[in-house]
Amino acid sequence: MNLNDLNPPLVELPPNLTWYRIQRTRALRGSVRLRGFVLPPKGVMAGRFDLSDEATAYLADSELTALYESEFRREATSCHIERLRKRSLTSFSATATLRLVDLRGLEEQFPVLQSLRYEATQAFAADCRSAGAHGVLYASAQHSYHACVCLFEAGIDRMKRIAQVDLVLPGTGRLHQSVVLAARGSAVPLIGMEKSE
């Protein structure tokens, strides 16, 4: 699977659209910090469109989609409250047009776009970056009719953080409303909650 064979459309998304991600509130040693993003180290290659030599950032078109993609995936059997305590819902906005390769609607034709075989999609991402794209726009495999984006560093450079809220309110144990909705919608049980919470 390469960019020329697939020949997907290239779209330009206007600035000021809001995108969401769940990320660690505090960076771990080795994390990449760029423009408000806290990202895994370069070269980890754990995500569908990761690049071997630069950081990538995954975002979603809604708060719920971000939670379904990160914490409440369909294969999850539970979600521990301590994991949520270490993460924030962070929103970003583009400061300039984003030029993205649009893969939405190609999932039936190319099932690898939603499979766990990432090698092909990672090579595809490298092709997209070489062609001057800022990232890849794709359909969420976890939240029907919603979209996600993977941004390369050129796309990350066009983003600004606009808000960051804890998933679990410190000192109270209260859950962010989107966490409650995602847990209910996914039927993934939350564990580690104290009775008072």
In short:
With 197 residues, this protein is α+β, with helices and mostly antiparallel strands.
Number of domains: 1
Number of helices: 6
Give the H and E element order: HEEEEEHEHEEHEEHEHE
CATH architectural arrangement: Alpha-Beta Complex
CATH class: Alpha Beta
**Average pLDDT taken over every residue:** 93
| Backbone shape | globular
Spatial strand order of the main sheet: 1-8-9-10-5
Question: Can you summarize the main beta sheet?
Answer: 5 strands, mixed
CATH topology: Diphtheria Toxin, domain 1
Low-confidence stretches: none
- What oligomerization state is this entry in? single chain
Q: Structural class, judged by helices and strands?
A: alpha+beta
Q: What is the alpha-carbon Rg in Å? A: 17 Å
Helical content class: 10-25%
Record field, number of beta strands: 12
Q: First CA to last CA: what distance?
A: 48 Å
How much strand? 25-35%
Features:
12 strands, alpha+beta, Diphtheria Toxin, domain 1, five-stranded mixed β-sheet, 197 residues, 22% helix
General description of the model:
With 197 residues, the chain is an alpha+beta fold. The chain has one domain (3-187): Diphtheria Toxin, domain 1. Helix content is 22%, strand content 28%. The protein contains 6 helices and 12 strands. It has helices spanning 3-6, 63-70, 81-85, 118-130, 153-156, 177-186; strands at 10-13, 18-24, 32-34, 37-39, 57-60, 79-80, 87-94, 98-102, 135-139, 147-151, 159-166, 190-191. The strands form 4 sheets. It has a 5-stranded mixed β-sheet with strand order 1-8-9-10-5. Strand 8 (98-102), helix 4 and strand 9 (135-139) form a beta-alpha-beta unit. It is globular and about 55 Å long. The model has no long low-confidence stretch (mean pLDDT 93).
